[in-house]
Amino acid sequence: MNAPHDPSSVGAAVAQKAQFSEPLRLKGGATLPAFEIAYETYGELNAARTNAVLVCHALNASHHVAGYYADQPDNLGWWDNLVGPGKPLDTRRFFVVGSNYIGSCFGSTGPASVNPATGKPWGADFPVVTVEDWVEAQARLADHLGIERFAAVIGGSLGAMQALQWTLSYPERIRHSIVIAAAARLTPQNIAFNEVARQAIMTDPDFHGGHYYDKGVVPVRGLRIARMIGHITYLSGEAMAEKFGRLLRRGTPGFDFDIDFEVESYLRYQGDKFSSYFDANTYLRITKALDYFDPAADYGGNLSAALARAKAAFLLVSFKSDWRFPPPRSRELVRALLDNRRIVSYLEIDAPGGHDAFLLEDPRYHKALAAYFGNIEL
Amino acid sequence: MNAPHDPSSVGAAVAQKAQFSEPLRLKGGATLPAFEIAYETYGELNAARTNAVLVCHALNASHHVAGYYADQPDNLGWWDNLVGPGKPLDTRRFFVVGSNYIGSCFGSTGPASVNPATGKPWGADFPVVTVEDWVEAQARLADHLGIERFAAVIGGSLGAMQALQWTLSYPERIRHSIVIAAAARLTPQNIAFNEVARQAIMTDPDFHGGHYYDKGVVPVRGLRIARMIGHITYLSGEAMAEKFGRLLRRGTPGFDFDIDFEVESYLRYQGDKFSSYFDANTYLRITKALDYFDPAADYGGNLSAALARAKAAFLLVSFKSDWRFPPPRSRELVRALLDNRRIVSYLEIDAPGGHDAFLLEDPRYHKALAAYFGNIEL
Asked: Read out DSSP for A67-112?
């Protein structure tokens, strides 16, 4: 099957897997005896190996960053608007690596993988992983691909935390870090939303303490609620008002518990869709990785001290309508980097999309990224 | 048992019930054949019957506004800091009526009451009730108590919606309306939070489509999640940060799914407590009443036109840290009342408590209420 020719598309992508047999010691103390990382690449690594850009994904995305699959022409990568020939992250110039992370349900070793110690899925026994662990695993992937140093690492939201952590775990391996819609740590309110989502999953009778793979059920109800809560925090109140208003789906109030308002329909749809493909054990672990991320914690809360070891140049981008990680959270990072005399560019965009704005194609945003990438010397 | 004598307490309160045998036609089209309203009163109705103040409650409160119960000296009314001898709503001067509403689980006719048509609890068959219906039922209570006209009606949040609706349903019966932490209608984001709470309840296997009373179970899981979501919206992000920070309950991250952060402990506790006493069918109906409230809907969205029939004088109060119904939502009401040349006082308080600030004892807030009530002529 041939997708229509689009010169700005990377074309048909191929998901790959890299195997690592060296055990990975995790921050929480557990050890993964061996693991796989799923990834995709677009463009060509140059001879000097200086043009690699690592794209880190957020909560429910994957290593499928750009292009489509030959047998699924409609399955576009989650950042296809950004990555491709002539796009802001131009694959004619850069070798782009989309990396999944351990604990995922999209191909890398995770809770649904077989635990070599038991021959059964890990389930609840899969360890709690952290952003630091993800960077460790991705560093192995970089080694595997022969990339000593990335021209840049880029990510939004949870992906931005990875982009930041890379500069702390491997300062010498990152020339530029592009940190979008980020926070240096979650607020108690951020954690609270994650906790409600976790409780919805863990109290679902079909969760079975995390060992549901052999029960023929998945905790669909809990995942549905978790996703609905997530969506409220991804969209701004303004964007919701703009998108749905108080439009009644049946014209008048139903005085029942079927769908009245359009926003209810949207949430139920998103919840149903998500719960049909996402793994609950993965969701639990991702929210923990978010909650735990706090580079300043080992420095008595002093973020400037925590970022002192970073050597990269930085671009930070935030969006005014993002109430999950609003601009002050990015400014805090900018200040801490400036305290360390890092080279920092910072852009605050008055876009309406809320936290999800980092996925959208705002011209100011994309022009800024195009300019930044254009200025990276190879 | 005697509670310690506190001269500013109304003392031991007695919950009462008023029976109404005249059917109540509801906004949604259903008819309640007969109903009861639970209420309490504090102070004395004067001979001219001009000193009655109606207190309307919000989501999980009740008619137990002030004082304690003789056999439960620690069970203080939810607005005991406001109502009593010498308090802002001074019971030496006013006859205060705390009214429950139909659909409640605290004594008024609701989903757990017996449906006379079947001899069994109403359950899912109890109609969806609205703020307008509550005012109709409370008007019957006023008749029952011999109160032709209230000196004032007061409420916060959902209670404020009732205080506003009274001035529209019975303009001649309300001299002053005190509308605190209010909104003229819910935003799609407000509705979204309600919908997630409802979905958590309705997808709980113990919900049984709302007919759980004879099953020996209640949808505890769903109620727990609903309450956790609610609490996130009642507290401001700043208040949560102040109250909990990122304090780890076990000192270090547990790398498991037990409680790590203090805020998780708080939410679980609040969820557990609420789910032990609140009725799920009531919760569903209250959130619908909130979603549906929109006096401007019948006026093409023109709030000024909708409020034209109000005759009361108004005091509105909002709190800057309230992100559920933030000050602009109150200002919108103030503007619409001014368009109608109503007498309006408006106070915007820079208090940190979030939406729940209306329950707290901020001196600026309480002094303003004391002054306002002090100026009401009897």
From this structure: SEETTBTT---TTTTTEETTSSEETTT-EEEEE--TT-SSSSS-TT
